[in-house]
């Protein structure tokens, strides 16, 4: 939210407090604004309106976030689903960038990188992979307690090999994995160097 969004946010807070019979001082409303300031105004207002329909008691800031994103457990399960979809659709030799950078951070923490994660998945039967899934879920939930890193790229084999041989110009652009890829499959794209454009790729051709 921007500073000029305060009035609209406080007005919606007032409606919510009135419905729940909750006293709301200006100072308390501003504390809520500070706690949710990283959200777009539209998302913050949506959460407040949703709380009036779905909650029994006046919401805490974390409850407003959960109305938008789900619980930490829900978020971790969605992240795992996106990771597993990416492992099925992308290749270990491609460099990948997850739109949800916490997925990439968890991959680095649990397996050390995209290549290693891909190799573990290819070698693991389902019982063994269930253990790996639990490791990822636990790590992702821990990462939710911290600000997400802005940009985490997971190098694939092509990038590692070409960089080691001194051919940076031969490194393909990263494959972008969007949030919700598991439930809204779409053609994967490579993210160009400027980060503002993408081009479709054929995974069969690498």
Largest sheet: 5 strands, mixed
Structural class, judged by helices and strands?
Answer: alpha+beta
How much strand content do the residues show? Answer: 5-15%
Written as H for each helix and E for each strand, in order along the chain, the element string is HHHHHEHHHEHEEE
State mean pLDDT (0 to 100 scale): 88
What is the CA-CA span between the terminal residues? 41 Å
The helical percent reads 40-55%
Beta strand count:
5
Taking all Cα atoms into account, the compactness measure Rg is 21 Å
SSE layout and pairings?
Layout: H1 6-20, H2 26-35, H3 41-54, H4 61-69, H5 72-89, E1 96-98, H6 101-111, H7 114-123, H8 126-143, E2 153-154, H9 157-164, E3 175-177, E4 189-191, E5 198-200
Parallel strand pairs: 1-3
Antiparallel strand pairs: 1-2, 3-4, 4-5
Helix pairs in contact: 1-2, 1-3, 3-4, 5-8, 6-7, 6-8
Sum up the structure in keywords.
9 helices, 206 residues, 55% helix, five-stranded mixed β-sheet, 5 strands, alpha+beta, elongated
Give a short synopsis of this structure.
The chain has 206 residues and is α+β, with helices and mostly antiparallel strands. It has nine helices and five strands. A five-stranded mixed beta sheet has the order 2-1-3-4-5.
